[in-house]
């Protein structure tokens, strides 16, 4: 895809924000296990960066998803993965279904302040016993007149400690697992909503993650997104944008791993010469950069198809799978070239190594992506073809949902 002058201007705006407002404070936020979410989101909102592809009627810029992808790709150049992840939850995980399928009343109450940064959004799908298998969630919403009464527990919820509302997937009937679910907006200050202690994670330490429990939580039925029983489908559609966003978000971080490793091995001396002079090392770095460029091309091909209104389930799953694969291999190879320094937490390569490890798990594990791709290629074993006939692909929720 050829970027326009408008795309380039957006790139410069995001790059400046990352360099001036995020990177100087990353070390502090990593140690604290979180960042001032409302404060940073309000600044992003003032620049229009939280509603790039959202409708103008609700405060967005009304641009196509290519501009959102430019924003996310540049955001991924930050010196940590946690802050970009929290922002992407706001823009590309918790609000797409709200923007596309909610009532005008619901958009006014929740989408508009999410775009301005006045409210922090969170997506609540995963549960202690239902991560990759979304159809297995247990949280229930019982009808009671004009309200729902909700009980259940969600796990690994990014932004939960700061969230003002949760876009929550629940069971609203005892029907078939793919037809009995609904998406409901639950304000965080509703009686019966409780956020647990922040989880201490291997990486993504500057993003706040916690369990959320719902005990006899009463919300009006007008908080329903779309039709009752359509939640699984709406969440699957939302996953496609989430996975494109997740892929775009990893590109610049991978490039940073490579460029910073080049700088380090150029200066590092061993056996009387620069490590960069070793053919094994500089060939490996060249191959890694080539892999990133191939990954970028796949991601942008998927984005173009998405903008054109095509079904991008296969391409988005492939881009997410490739993101997961490269996020495991590239930081690992680069860290090896740093030697003992790479094992020290204070180095950026160490942080990239820890943060990137979430990618092949969150937003749909690699194994789930392979299952989706195989199904759409028609190459599942014959038994599985019979078992899954006329059923939606089993999808994955994400650490952070």
TrEMBL record:
Record keywords, A-Z: FAD, Flavoprotein, Oxidoreductase
PROSITE patterns: ACYL_COA_DH_1, ACYL_COA_DH_2
Domain spans labelled Acyl-CoA dehydrogenase/oxidase N-terminal: 4-118
Cofactors demanded by this protein: FAD
Family annotation (Pfam families): Acyl-CoA_dh_1, Acyl-CoA_dh_M, Acyl-CoA_dh_N
Superkingdom field: Bacteria
The keyword Transmembrane helix is annotated on this UniProt entry: no
Acyl-CoA oxidase/dehydrogenase middle domain mapped to chain residues: 123-217
Ranges for domain Acyl-CoA dehydrogenase/oxidase C-terminal: 229-375
Record-stated family: Belongs to the acyl-CoA dehydrogenase family.
Protein name: Acyl-CoA dehydrogenase
Gene: acdA_2
């Amino acid at each position: 895809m050829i970027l326009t002058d408008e795309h380039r201007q957006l790139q410069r705006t995001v790059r400046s924000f990352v360099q001036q407002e995020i990177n100087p404070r990353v070390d502090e936020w990593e140690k604290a296990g979180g960042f001032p979410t409302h404060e940073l989101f309000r600044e992003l909102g003032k620049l229009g960066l939280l509603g790039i592809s959202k409708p103008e009627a609700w405060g967005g810029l009304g641009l196509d998803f290519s501009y959102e992808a430019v924003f996310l790709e540049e955001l991924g150049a930050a010196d940590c993965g946690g802050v970009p992840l929290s922002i992407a939850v706001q823009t590309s995980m918790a609000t797409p279904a709200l923007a596309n399928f909610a009532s005008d009343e619901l958009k006014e109450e929740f989408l508009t302040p999410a775009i301005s940064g006045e409210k922090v959004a969170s997506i609540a799908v995963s549960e202690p016993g239902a991560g990759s298998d979304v159809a297995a969630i247990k949280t229930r919403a019982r009808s009671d007149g004009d309200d729902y009464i909700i009980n259940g527990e969600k796990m690994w919820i990014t932004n939960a400690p700061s969230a003002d509302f949760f876009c929550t997937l629940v069971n609203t009937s005892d029907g078939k697992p793919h037809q009995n679910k609904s998406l409901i907006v639950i304000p965080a200050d509703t009686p019966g909503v409780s956020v647990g202690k922040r989880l201490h994670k291997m990486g993504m330490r500057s993003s706040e993650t916690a369990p959320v429990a719902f005990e006899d939580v009463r919300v009006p039925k007008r908080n329903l997104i779309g039709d009752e029983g359509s939640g699984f489908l709406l969440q699957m559609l939302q996953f496609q944008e989430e996975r494109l966003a997740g892929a775009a978000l990893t590109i610049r971080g991978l490039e940073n791993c490579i460029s910073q490793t080049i700088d380090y091995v150029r200066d590092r001396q061993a056996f009387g010469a620069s490590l960069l002079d070793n053919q094994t090392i500089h060939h490996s770095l060249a191959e890694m950069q080539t892999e990133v460029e191939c990954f970028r091309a796949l991601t942008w091909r998927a984005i173009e198809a998405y903008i054109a209104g095509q079904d991008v389930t296969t391409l988005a799953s492939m881009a997410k799978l490739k993101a997961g694969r490269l996020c495991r291999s590239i930081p690992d190879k680069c860290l090896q070239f740093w030697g003992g320094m790479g094992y020290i937490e204070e180095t950026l390569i160490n942080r990239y190594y820890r943060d990137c490890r979430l990618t092949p798990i969150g937003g749909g594990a690699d194994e789930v992506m392979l299952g989706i791709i195989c199904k759409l290629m028609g190459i599942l074993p014959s038994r599985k073809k019979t078992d899954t006939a006329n059923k939606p692909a089993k999808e994955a929720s994400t650490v952070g949902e």
